[in-house]
Amino acid sequence: MKNSFEIPFNILKIENEGYHIQIQANINDLNCTLLIDTGASKTVLDLNFFNHYISDYSPVQEDRLSVGLGTDSMITHSATIENLKIGEILLTDFQTTLLDLSHVNTSYNKLYLPEIAGVLGGDLLMKHHAIINYYDQKLTLKY
């Protein structure tokens, strides 16, 4: 991993003093928005986004529950994404977890914020040596 690149991101003000970071990505040649979440252990996609836009694949329900993202537990699904592109990184046959993120998107709608297709989590942030620069609003990744 010696090449690096920067991706601009948007900082969204959430209520009084909170902030979320959103980045543009591409899933199976479809432009979408991901929430950068350094507290999320894995990158996950929204089950509703997946079912609506990626009809060629069938998600498989898992026997385990996922904890986090503002809920006690969620039923998880898994799927393989043909391609996930974040900046210059192209991940093919990307194994991902699908969660129902409708509660996040419902909250975003109430705040007039753009919906997300998923969460960019610690697995990819760590693997690609992420540096989040709030001042310049850029995410640096290495590949």
CATH superfamily: Acid Proteases
Terminal residue distance: 5 Å
User: Could you list the spans in which at least 5 consecutive residues all have pLDDT below 50?
Assistant: none
How much helical structure, as a percent, in the residues? 10-25%
Q: Describe the largest sheet.
A: 6 strands, mixed, barrel
The residue-averaged pLDDT reads: 89
Q: Report the portion of residues in β strands.
A: over 45%
Please work out how many helical segments DSSP would assign.
3
Which descriptor suits the 3D outline?
globular
- Rg is 15 Å
The assigned CATH architecture is Beta Barrel
Order of helices and strands: EEEEHEEEHEHEE
Number of domains: 1
Total beta strands? 10
Secondary structure class reads: alpha+beta
Which sequence of strands runs across the widest sheet? 2-3-8-4-7-6
- Specify the CATH class: Mainly Beta
CATH-assigned fold name: Cathepsin D, subunit A, domain 1
Mind explaining what this structure looks like?
The protein has one domain (4-142): Cathepsin D, subunit A, domain 1. Helices cover 15% and strands 55% of the residues. The chain has helices at 47-53, 102-110, 122-127; strands spanning 4-14, 18-27, 30-36, 44-46, 60-68, 71-86, 89-99, 118-120, 131-133, 138-142. The protein has a six-stranded mixed barrel with strand order 2-3-8-4-7-6. 23% of the residues are buried.
